[in-house]
Each structure stands twice: as C-alpha cells, then as structure tokens.
C-alpha cells in the first residue's frame, strides 16, 4: 500500500513550519516540492502503511491506496479523525463506499 495526495484538497499547510504529514511520518518519506510548495512521497515502496500522515492531515487530502492484491487501483481507505472516534471510509474498485466508525479513548 501507499498513500495518495489529493492536490486539490492539499493546501501545503503554508502557515506551518512543517506540515503534519511530514512532521509525523516515522519513515521520513514525505517532503515538500519547493516549486509547488506541496508535499510529495519520496519513495512509495518504502511506505509501511502506518497511516500516521493520513490521520494527521487537517484537510483530509491524503488517502491510502489498497494493494492490487486486495482491490484495483481505484480502491482507497481514508480515515477521518474526530474527538473520541475515527471514521474509516472505504471505496472499492466499483466506487461503492462503506463507512466504519471506531470509538477511541481520546
């Protein structure tokens, strides 16, 4: 798996020193493109799918690409983090969406 950045939703977090997706990536796999002033993935194959960057994005501009073995290229998994819960949005290859909500202790 790897992440996908929706550049229409991504602001680059220009008002922050370091965007949360970059700050919290434990593998240091995300960097800012100096021309576009937006993040990009340095190495998709090195991503171990922890989803920290996806959860940290304040604009929900990141999503997880599911591997081809599980779904086609168009499938995705996207969490939205709220106080006390995480809502997971799963989109399959045909565009069907399912939503799962998990309660958290926060």
Task: Give a quick set of tags describing it.
106 residues; mainly beta
Short description:
The model has no long low-confidence stretch (mean pLDDT 85). The chain has 106 residues and is mainly β. It has two helices and seven strands, in the order βαββαββββ.
Task: Explain the overall architecture.
There is one protein chain. This protein is mostly beta strands. It has one domain: Alpha-Beta Plaits (2-Layer Sandwich). Helix content is about 10%, strand content about 35%. It has two helices and seven strands; from the N terminus they run E-H-E-E-H-E-E-E-E. The strands form two sheets. The protein has a five-stranded antiparallel beta sheet. The longest helix has 5 residues. It is globular, with a radius of gyration of 14 Å. The protein starts with a strand and ends with a strand. The mean pLDDT is about 85.
Lay out the secondary structure.
Blueprint: E1 2-5, H1 20-24, E2 30-33, E3 38-41, H2 52-56, E4 62-65, E5 76-82, E6 85-91, E7 97-103
Antiparallel strand pairs: 1-4, 2-3, 4-5, 5-6, 6-7
């Amino acid at each position: 798996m790897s992440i996908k950045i929706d550049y229409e939703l991504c602001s680059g977090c220009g008002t922050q020193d370091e965007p949360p997706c970059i700050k919290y990536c434990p593998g240091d796999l995300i960097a800012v493109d100096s021309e576009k002033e937006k993040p990009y993935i340095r190495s998709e194959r090195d991503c171990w799918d922890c989803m920290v960057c996806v959860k940290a994005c304040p604009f929900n501009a990141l999503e997880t690409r599911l591997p081809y073995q599980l779904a086609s290229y168009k499938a995705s998994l996207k969490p939205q983090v709220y106080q006390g819960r995480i809502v997971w949005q799963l989109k399959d290859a045909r565009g069907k969406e399912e939503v799962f909500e998990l309660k958290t202790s926060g």
